[in-house]
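Quick look at the format.
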Amino acid sequence: MHVVEISRFGQPDVLTSVEVSDPTPAPGHVLVTVAAAGINRADILQRRGHYPPPPGAPSWPGLEVSGVVEALGEGVKGWKVGDRVAALIDGGGYAELVTVPAEQLLPVPDSVDLVDAAGLPEAVCTAWSNLVDVARLSAGEHVLVHGGSGGVGTVAIQVARALGAHVLVTAGSEERVARCMELGAAGGFVYRRPEGESFADALPDLVREATGGHGADVVLDVVGGAYLGANVASLATGGRLVVIGMQKGQRGELDLGTLLTRRASVTGTTLRSRPAEEKARIVAAVREHAWPWLADGRLRPVVHARLPLAEAARGHELLDSGEVVGKVLLVP
């Protein structure tokens, strides 16, 4: 089968199509013929040499796919050959075939395009596990989603709205804020400012004004160090900051006095490095609680572009450009 391998660490042109042996499903695993693979920030970090795949995962990137069940490993129940599925995987999605633990599969309803479904597993599992499991987001609360027009952000908006929360976003332009509002956000803030103006300094006042002085009960942050202080200052009393990315730095300054006064918390999480049993629990919760929203329209994939698998480098360039709304998909 053809896969897209990282020939060396570096720029997108290091992504190269190669041929490898077809995989076979181990006990408890399912072989899936890939309809599409989603590109994620983790893939870019892996390409640059900053995010190695976990032990046992293929060396080529790709954390989510959609496709059709091709074969079942020993002991697999509840799935059959020909089923339309989406899958959360540890790596190896940039390929024509993947093997997936059966517990990390999700059924793709007929109402959802099979290719577009590849843009859902990583984002929905990330949004659900962080907004619900970690942040305990509930109806009526205010949530601020940084990078609202990104792959995780577009899904997090929909998940938060389906839970009954009020959503604010940050995005790179008014047009992108408007796209977020089409997905259910109540409003948002453009983080690109004229030279000399600090968006981080302005953020707490913007959030308080937009929430009637209340502040954000939950902040879902992909930015990292550069926004740490501003995020904490934006929290309501009892607020929860959940950091899931470090796009602008691993280190930041934290005012402990503000944290204590607000009785707030700061949590950092990742998804890829979690043990298989934790991923299985997250996928099961998503299937039970969030996946039904696909049927009634409260949740849908947001796809910026579909590209041939062999053009993975162009897909990474698109994501690197910062102009993508939603997901870029690779189609074998």
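Next, a different chain entirely:
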Amino acid sequence: MAFAPLAALFLVRIFIIQHDCGHYSFFRSRRANNVTGFFCGLLTLTPYTSWRRQHAGHHGVWNDLDRRETGADIYSSCLTTEEYLALSRRKRWEYRAARHPVVANLVLPPLIFFVLYRLPFDMPRNWKRERRGVYLTNIALVGLLGSLGLVLGFGQVALVQVPVMILASIIGVWLFSVQHRSEKAQWFRHEQWDAQAASLQGSTFLRLPGPLRWFTGNIGYHHVHHLNPRIPNYRLRDCHAALSDLREVPQLSFRDAMRALWFVLWDERLGKMVTIREMKREQLPSRAAA
């Protein structure tokens, strides 16, 4: 148990390798990427084929206000303040509850990896290959963990695997959730959206110390990754250093990244991300005037 945090960090690095394989960037060979990605998925409890396609959807619509429902999730999307205020009281509560840092970043991540990834719950019927991939991953996991359980004891396997997976899921989801959130991150209407502007203004640069950069596979250089997803994680830092324009992006310290979890609304009038509390403060003068 004492080594669970360290093991979780190694698992995060394995997920980043899987992530690169999903973009066909870790190896030159497409087959090598897919084989490696599948086996990484067994360690991270992730159905590689379906995750790869869903993640590609995110890369097609990030920070595009008019395409948020075609490949985004609660970690890479948001409502505008006007949309939020138009919701019923119950819907507002649901929105706030789902995106509260405790729920979104502590409660939901383990459920995603342990439960939701075991089911093709949000996949269209015509995603036949991806659906098969979910079942194939589950069968492989039953064989792998079942064999370990028979040899070592199921209780011992659970004591090792469950804490490590919980910690790794929380770290990994936190990493991805803050990469498009900050007070400076920009959203665009579709007619103004283009990949380069969205990469440099809608993706953040998370500054981490050297050891954490290694464990997280340089995913903090997220603006570079979105600018060109075919750049492998071990080249992201070099690209950032080589081009001065890549340094003029929203930057987050560790402290900024923790605060960024509260930015869940886009204020089109102010042109920036805001917290629920800030949105309420902005509403007070308007109500008083009315």
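The longest strand covers residues 263-267.

See the schema section for token definitions.
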